[in-house]
Structure formats: C-alpha cells, structure tokens
C-alpha cells in the first residue's frame, strides 16, 4: 500500500532486507524499514537481530534520514497518550522496540524519525510474521469461527492504511524530526469494529479470556502529528474506511 501510494509522488525504490547495502540506501533522502525478524517479536533483544540498527549502521555517515517504525506498545497503556507519556512496555516486542529506538538514536541523532504506530488496518490476505487483527479475522472467516482474547473488550486507536500513506507523504515533504504518535486519535472498541465489518450471522465469535492479560484501553493524542502534517481524521473518515473493508471482506467470504 505504502509503496504504491508513494511511487506516484516520489522517486522511490523497494528493496528486500537481505539485499540492502551502503551503495543502494546511503544516497537516498529517506529510508523506511518495513521488515522485521520473527525473533524481534518473540525473543529477548539482540543487536544482531535488530534490522533497524543494521540499517542505522549502514547510513550513519550519510545524510539519509531514517524512519523507524515503532509501536504504541512502548507506552504504559491509557487513553490520550502523547509523545511524552510514560514508557513502560508490557511485552518483549515493546521492550525490543524501545531498545531499537535508543540504539538507532545514538547512531543517527537528528536523522532518526520515530513513528510509534497504532493499530493500522486495511484489507490483507498475505502471510504475516505477526498476525494483525484483520488477518486474524480473515483467517477466522474461512473457518466460520473467530476466536478473540480479552482484547475484544478493549478500546484502541484504529488507523486506516490509506491515511497512514497520507501521513508519510506529509512527513517526507515537511522534513519531519523526532518522535510522532501515528494513529487516528479516535478511541474505538474492538468489539464495535468487529461487529461492523463481520457478518455475525455467518461467522461465530468466541471469546477466550486470558488470566494473565496485561493490555489496557489506549488511544493516541495526535496533536503533534496533526499540527505537523495538517491531516485531520474524524469518525466519518473512520466509518468510510470500515465500510470499504467490510465490502472487501464480504467478497472474500
């Protein structure tokens, strides 16, 4: 999605992670890492497994600006999270994201832009190292049964992929610096989202509560992002993207 959107606006190249080198990324104005190893989600931090840090080391002596994709999971979860909110990750992935941010910042200083992403959603049917909410829903539709844990009852910040693409365009054009919380800034329950896009008459929804569940309601304060990019998102925009996804899922089903 991001590549197809940005190629209409910029001279852009997509490179597989195992093909990156000093010669093909150090002359770029911007580099965005969209890849990750499975161990980064599941195992204790290792610099050797940190793809962000490898890229930072390659471009450290160039003028290239690196966009690092981090996560909302680095924060102590609550509503109205700002870039200055308490950092208290509750998962291995969150801890690894914070360490990656720190080590890359040490290498690149002001040439690092950290984007802490909310729940990005869009229609997707490919395999993922870390299943998203939508990929989990699509997998469940095939089985006529979707199993959720306690997350089903939480409020989250849903960001349509098309709006994320627009954010990127503005962040590039206006020479972004520092840390940005990237979301819609609109609190929305997972239950409401699922009930909107899934035909409950055809698909059974099962809730299995986890005893040691730590996640909580959260939503970003995107005042900084909105002011910098000029992009405004409201509930009407969200429902428009929900409706588009609902149509795609209906066709998939």
Task: Give me some keywords for this one.
253 residues; three-stranded mixed β-sheet; four-stranded parallel β-sheet; 10 helices; alpha/beta
Describe the protein in words.
This protein is an alpha/beta fold. It has helices spanning about 1-5, 20-25, 40, 50-60, 90-110, 135-145, 160-175, 190-195, 225-230, 235-250; strands spanning about 30, 65-70, 110-115, 120, 145-150, 155-160, 180, 185-190, 205. The strands form 3 sheets. It has a 4-stranded parallel sheet, sandwiched between helices. A 3-stranded mixed sheet has the order 4-6-8. A two-stranded parallel sheet has the order 5-9. Helix 4 (about 50-60) runs parallel beside helix 5 (about 90-110). The two termini are about 20 Å apart. The mean pLDDT is about 95.
């Amino acid at each position: 999605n991001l590549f197809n959107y940005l190629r209409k606006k910029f001279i852009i190249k997509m490179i597989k992670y195992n093909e990156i080198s000093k010669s093909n990324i150090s002359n770029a104005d911007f580099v965005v890492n969209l890849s990750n190893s499975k161990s980064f989600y599941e195992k204790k931090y290792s610099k050797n497994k940190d793809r962000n840090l490898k890229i930072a080391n390659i471009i450290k002596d160039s003028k290239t600006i690196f966009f690092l994709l981090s996560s909302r999971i680095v924060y102590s979860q609550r509503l109205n999270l700002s870039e200055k909110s308490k950092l208290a990750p509750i998962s291995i992935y969150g801890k690894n994201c914070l360490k990656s941010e720190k080590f890359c910042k040490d290498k690149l200083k002001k040439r690092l832009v950290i984007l802490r992403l909310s729940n990005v959603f869009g229609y997707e049917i490919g395999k993922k190292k870390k299943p998203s909410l939508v990929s989990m829903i699509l997998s469940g539709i095939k089985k006529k049964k979707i199993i959720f844990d306690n997350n089903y009852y939480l409020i989250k910040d849903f960001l349509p992929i098309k709006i994320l693409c627009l954010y990127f365009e503005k962040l590039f054009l206006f020479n972004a610096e520092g840390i940005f919380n990237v979301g819609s800034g609109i609190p929305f329950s997972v239950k409401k989202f699922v009930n909107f896009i899934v035909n409950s008459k055809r698909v059974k929804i099962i809730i299995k509560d986890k005893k040691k569940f730590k996640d909580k309601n959260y939503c970003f304060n995107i005042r900084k992002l909105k002011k910098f990019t000029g992009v405004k998102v409201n509930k009407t925009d969200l429902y428009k993207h929900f409706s588009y996804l609902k149509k795609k899922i209906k066709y998939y089903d």
